[in-house]
Amino acid sequence: MIKIGLRDARAHFGRFVMSIIAIALGVSFVVGSFCFREMMNNQVSDMMGTSADHDVYVRGSKEVKSDSSGLMAASSSSKTYNTINVDLASTIGDVKGVKSAEVVYSVSGTVLVGKDGAAVSTMGAPTLAVGFGKDVPWRSATFTSGTYPTSDDEIALHSFAAEKANLKVGDKTKVVYPDGPKDVTVTGIFDLDSSLAGAIMIDIPPSLAKTYATQQSDDPDKTDQIGIYGNLKTPLDEQAQQELADRINKALPAGSKAHAITGNQLRDESTQSTQEALGFVQPLILIFAVIALFVGSFIIANTFSMIVRESMRGYAVLRSIGASPAQVFTTVIVQAIVLGVVGSGIGIGLGWGMVKGIVAMMGQMGTPMTGSSNPSVSDMLVGLAVGLIVTLIGAALPASRAAMAPPIQAMNETVNPEKPVLTRGIIGTTMIVVGALTWAWTCRIALADGDPTLIGWLNDFASWTGTGWPLGVGAALIVIGVIVAGPAWVSPAGAVLGWIPAHVFQVTGRLATRNLSRHKRRTSNTAAALFVGVAIVSCLSVVATSAKASVNDIVDTGLKADFSISSAASGQIPDNAVE
């Protein structure tokens, strides 16, 4: 029976093309969502390992509720702690095993000017001036040419920033600081251990960074954290980090309100916080996967219904020579498994390619991503399972019909007529009417100025449900009702919509109209797939249009100026520029 199923799958492979495409699209979104999430997680993890690469960090010992920016924007945790005295760096530097203990100052709101005189900016990524040098090292930075800046009119550039600005060592340019533009000379180009997703990194002298950072700070003698290296060349392992943190905690003065933690702990906290903030991306992609698979299930069911209907005599012959219903059922399921495996395999490759395309596009837009985007074994297994499950669900009902084919049908030269659809029409139409009444009730609640009715318990019910639940229930009833009642509406709809074709193209138009009514369920299933797809797209369009209108209203209400000026690179506009 398995051989028969494989033979039938090969014989009907041409009819499976649309179903394979439907499965591949749904699986591609599923696999693509997992690949994209893992790529973003890997990117965030790599970025945290680069921007916060110290072996130990000393920060406040008490968590506070107020928001505060971290020492480096990319390495700040979602939790905030009390600030600590910058003088603790000298105390920490005397601890055994500490090679460097420094406050790394950074200046936000800067703008780098490229060789063409225009501001260097990327797609949403910030420009950050970090103060590091020989006395304040950054282990992840490796100079490929030149060296650290030593005076206020010198800078060094990350290789990505130098490429975007078209600058090299020895070139002169400008950097716009919070107090205005300054002429500078590029003294070096450095690489980092990982991409920073398009951030423009500028190395400035630590003293200059401290000057600007203290101007932006409410208390220049306080800082969020102090970074400590136990080795200036390679990172310490987890055990060595913990031992160094323990020694530092013992050396911290009583009442300093400071506490040392390992660099791995800080990186894990920051990585988890950022990953949670980006967690909305995968569900957003999975919405399209659900849409594609839901619509695809109709196409799969329709395909198998046609194949089973046309092969019914063959299944009846199998029954007449002794095949059991389970064996006949197996022949159809084997075809479904082949279809699911082929569609899922294509979908896995398509999803992988989709993520690769997104990464390439982001790189072209100035946001290079170096996190691995390759699907894991679990991602591929999930995609394969989803494709198989959807295919088996779509093929289950037609397979059960084939299994129940009576042997006597082998002698029937005609195809048995379809079952009556009147009952489905009544049930589906009733559901639509109830759904419409539910929507009317929702409108009544939304538009009522006070209680929607004069009945107390009904008003209490309306207050309990609000407008969300009735709206959702009404939508579900209408959608399901249309699908259930669809076969009963085929003949009336065909008579109305087919009137013009039947009179313009008298032969082909009438044949087409009659063919629709000949297989009501097949026609309804085909229309249902289109109906559901268009309904979901329309729903998303309404949501997008509503959101756009809301944002426009907010902007129109909050911004009354004739013109608006902003920094080209998300920086600050200096006071003299405002004047």
Describe the structure in brief.
The chain has 579 residues and is an alpha+beta fold. Helix content is 57%, strand content 12%.
Any idea what the radius of gyration is? 33 Å
Helix content: 55-70%
Shape assignment? elongated
What's the β-strand tally? Answer: 16
Largest sheet: 8 strands, mixed
Low-confidence stretches: 67-77
Helical element count?
A: 18
* Domain module tally: 3
Structural class: alpha+beta
**Strand content range:** 5-15%
Report the average pLDDT across residues: 83
Distance between the first and last residues' Cα: 85 Å
Question: How does this structure look, described?
Answer:
This protein has 3 domains: 1-51 and 271-410, no CATH class; 54-234, no CATH class; 418-579, no CATH class. It is 57% helix and 12% strand. The chain is built from 18 helices and 16 strands. The chain has helices at residues 2-11, 17-51, 88-93, 159-165, 206-216, 238-251, 263-277, 281-310, 312-320, 325-364, 377-403, 422-447, 456-465, 468-497, 499-504, 506-518, 520-558, 575-578; strands at 56-60, 63-64, 80-81, 84-85, 100-102, 106-108, 111-112, 127-131, 142-146, 154-158, 172-177, 180-191, 200-204, 222-223, 225-229, 258-262. Strands 6, 7, 8, 9, 10, 11, 12 and 13 form an 8-stranded mixed beta sheet that branches. It has a 4-stranded antiparallel beta sheet with strand order 5-15-1-16. A two-stranded antiparallel sheet has the order 2-3. Helix 2 (17-51) packs antiparallel against helix 8 (281-310) and helix 14 (468-497) packs across helix 17 (520-558). It starts with a helix and ends with a helix. Residues 67-77 have low confidence and may be disordered.
